[in-house]
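hey
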């Protein structure tokens, strides 16, 4: 009996743990979907004036509308890639506002295209405040001297352009910033892998159950003697 009972308990315990982990990931999936829906709603809300002292936690993705002049210095070129378009740059310029100079992510140009000059007139920018997290362990250091950036490091960019370390990612610019395609903030870059994790844990639970059943079947078979 012990030959059956011990592996049965072990097998059931393993199945319970794996199913529990899968169920936890399903719960995390629903939580993440709700979080992303809240972020999307926040991004698309009516724009407001630029806060005097924005906070990276409370004001992330805050929609704003700002009037000013895009600085002629720069722009800083952040290397990115667009699906079905290829490699290009995000253009980061200074934006002169009534509240000082801030960073403006104007949008995308292809690597092969010439960098268009900034509009000379006063512009109205509608966009979102953002504190991007572009850097990971594989991200190269920014080539400041060669003006090729691999991450939007706000403090470093602000030091080069003489602005506050505050970034507005443009959704639209009026009059239009000719030759530049805005890359507005959205939630697509926020990972949501919980469904894949749940499938993995449930699959492991199924495999564990099959292996447990096979092991019990083998132990129940009468031993034959030669």
């Amino acid at each position: 009996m012990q030959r059956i009972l011990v592996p049965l308990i072990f097998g059931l315990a393993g199945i319970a743990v794996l199913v529990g982990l899968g169920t936890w990931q399903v719960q995390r999936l629903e939580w993440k979907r709700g979080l992303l829906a809240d972020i999307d709603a926040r991004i698309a809300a009516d724009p407001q004036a630029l806060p005097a002292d924005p906070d990276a936690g409370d004001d992330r993705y805050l929609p704003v509308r700002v009037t000013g002049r895009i600085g002629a210095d720069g722009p800083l070129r952040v290397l990115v890639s667009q699906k079905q378009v290829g490699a290009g740059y995000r253009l980061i310029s200074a934006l002169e506002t009534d509240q000082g100079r801030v960073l403006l992510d104007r949008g995308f140009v292809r690597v092969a295209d010439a960098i268009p000059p900034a509009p000379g007139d006063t512009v109205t920018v509608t966009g979102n405040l953002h504190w991007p997290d572009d850097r990971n362990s594989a991200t190269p250091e920014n080539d400041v001297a060669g003006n090729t950036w691999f991450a939007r490091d706000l403090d470093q960019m602000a030091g080069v352009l003489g602005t506050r370390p505050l970034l507005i990612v443009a959704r639209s610019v009026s009059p239009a910033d000719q030759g530049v395609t805005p890359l507005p903030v959205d939630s697509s870059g926020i990972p949501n892998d919980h469904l894949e994790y749940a499938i993995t844990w449930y699959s492991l639970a199924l495999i564990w159950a099959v292996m447990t059943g096979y092991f019990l079947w083998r132990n129940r078979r009468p031993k034959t003697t030669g």
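Residues 62-174 form a domain with the OB fold (Dihydrolipoamide Acetyltransferase, E2P) fold (CATH 2.40.50). The two ends are 24 Å apart (CA to CA).
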